[in-house]
Amino acid sequence: MSAGGLLKRVAQLIVTVLAVTLFSAFLLELLPGDPVAVLVPFGSDKQRETVRTDLELDEPFIARYGTWLGGFVTGDMGNYYTVSSKRPVADRLTEAFPKSAQLVLYSQILALLVAIPVAVFAAAKKDTFFDRMSNTTAFAMLAIPNSRSRWSCSTTSV
Question: pTM value?
Answer without folding.
Answer: 0.60
